[in-house]
Amino acid sequence: MDDIIILVDENGVEQEYEVLDTVEYDGEKYLVLIQDEDDEVSIVKVDSDDGDELELSTVEDEVMKEVYYAFKDKNADNYDFDD
């Protein structure tokens, strides 16, 4: 998946992320994102997706861990995980 999305932070600064995967967890949809210069992924919840625009929200730490583990299990053959 080579989808790129632009997120705007709380200071109005645009940041480009690559979407590594979409993960379903506990009936919700999450995006696993990475920036070029980072080794760490970011995880956001998809609140709505009307095709042209996504509404995303932050994720609590415990849910983030569970989504990350689901991402790791799903992609064990695609990525090298160091943790």
What does this structure look like?
The chain has 83 residues and is of the alpha+beta class. The protein contains 1 helix and 5 strands; from the N terminus they run βββββα. It has one helix spanning 61-74; strands at residues 3-8, 14-25, 28-34, 42-49, 54-57. It has a 5-stranded antiparallel beta sheet. Strand 1 and strand 2 (14-25) form a beta hairpin.
Task: Throw out a few tags for this protein.
83 residues; alpha+beta
Instruction: Report the portion of residues in β strands.
Output: 35-45%
SSE string, helix = H, strand = E? EEEEEH
Give the low-confidence spans.
none
Based on secondary structure, the structural category is alpha+beta
Give a summary of the structure in a few sentences:
Helices cover 17% and strands 45% of the residues. It has 83 residues and is an alpha+beta fold.
Task: Walk me through the topology.
Blueprint: E1 3-8, E2 14-25, E3 28-34, E4 42-49, E5 54-57, H1 61-74
Antiparallel strand pairs: 1-2, 2-3, 3-4, 4-5
